[in-house]
From TrEMBL:
InterPro entries: YkvI-like
Segments crossing the lipid bilayer: 38-56, 77-98, 110-127, 139-157, 177-195, 204-222, 251-274, 286-305, 311-333
Protein name per Swiss-Prot or TrEMBL: Membrane protein YkvI
Keywords: Membrane, Transmembrane, Transmembrane helix
Source domain of life: Bacteria
Transport among keywords: no
Organism: Virgibacillus halodenitrificans (Bacillus halodenitrificans)
Amino acid sequence: MIRAGLKWMFLIIGTTIGAGYASGRELWQFFGHESGLAILLFIIFFSICCMVIMDISHKKESTQYLPVLKEIVGIKLTGVYDVMIFLYLFTTTVVMIAGSGATGRAFNFPYIWGIGIMIFALIILFIKDINGLLSVNQFVLPLLLGGLLFVLIMFTYDQNLSLFSHWHEQRNWTAAFPFTALNILPLIAVLGAIGNKVKSKGEIVIACVGSGLILGIITYIYNNSLIQIADEILVYEIPLFAILKHYPLEMLIFMSILLWFAIFTTAASGVLGIVTRVQEFFRLPLWLIVVITLITMLPLTAFGFSTLVSYLYPIYGILNLYVLVRLLLFPLWKRTDSPPTS
């Protein structure tokens, strides 16, 4: 049970920590100054939402997200959110591919090289079906989380930063709502695809509480570090590099490789959500649907990583607020919706 719970926990974290999150760009977009309470609320909201999604997915033994979505938003809005999830997964996967190009550009590689490597790696991954994604998550994510925490704690120590000096200033607490909402929609798609593989409630609790706590702790320390370099973030497309410039080149290379894998796992999660839905309409091999999907994404990467994050993420954060409310109040909705017993 514990091993299975950790496997799903890494899938949740891998879906959430992508180019936007791991680079620091997404965190700075929503949090920044006076956000400690917002991050605490995010931990609570995120854990509850994941538990509701996984519980529905487990009960329905789902292999794609549509049955889970119907249960969350109701039959009337399912069509609207089905399209929205598809668009979200499509556009955020474009952001991940663009993030790969931006990571390569930090080392003076052509933007298109980073994009090409990402697309090739995704195709190879899906030749092994969903098991390939789960294997990569379990291997890469502990390294990424450990490396990111190490860099952030070292930066906090070297700069003599206090983690709790501004707890009396919490005016940005409302950021918890759009930030959680932004990260919930892809989890409906991804967790909806593995319902038939979840075996127990214990796995769900471990996965959801564990992922919420880990993401919350990293988010808090990361945000605290970004506040110290607020002026430099304007210059860097990837804010993490503004922190890494204080450390040796070897550290920069190591973290850049881990950042790329974070981008890769999130892109893979997005592609998984897309192709499992498309397979309902087209009986084609999984890898072929992946190839066609990635080819259609290529032109949109021209907009650039930071531009895509700054425009798309706040929009999705607001549009997904209804889903967030439905998930947080799900037990109440179900009690209201269920017919009275005679």
